[in-house]
């Protein structure tokens, strides 16, 4: 089986299903960590309904969908914050496909997408409990840096300079 990564409309059925899985997992992890229960289903629906996906729409954003053996397996988004800075968002690989190299491929594809929209560097935020994500970003050359946003759940901020591809 092989991986493929394509750009898709952020509102596609595949992207929406992957976003729902991503949000459910990270929200459940947060609620279990701090409140001892999973996400309230009504809150989940409110949060999903509130998403416009505008930031992941061309010309200043992209949503990438990874497939493993043709089956949707993960997603990542990138969008411009300013003329030179892209933000990496919503990196997610379905549990059944983890450990097969998809996350690294998604992040590298997102970096390429950021270069394509003229970003010189890329930033992201994550939480302390998302240890797998922090390890991935460090392994891929991201360095922890100062806060770059006011995201209430963020606890770690990373940055990477994007070397132009020749």
TrEMBL record:
Keywords for the protein's UniProt record, in alphabetical order: Acyltransferase, Transferase
Classification via PANTHER family: AMINOALKYLPHOSPHONATE N-ACETYLTRANSFERASE-RELATED, AMINOALKYLPHOSPHONATE N-ACETYLTRANSFERASE-RELATED-RELATED
Organism listed in the record: Streptomyces fuscus
A UniProt-annotated Pfam family: Acetyltransf_1
InterPro entries: Acyl_CoA_acyltransferase, Bact_Acetyltransf, GNAT_dom
Entry annotated with the keyword Acyltransferase: yes
Protein name, per record: GNAT family N-acetyltransferase
Gene3D superfamilies (alphabetical): 3.40.630.30
UniProt domain N-acetyltransferase: residue ranges: 24-163
Keyword Transport: no
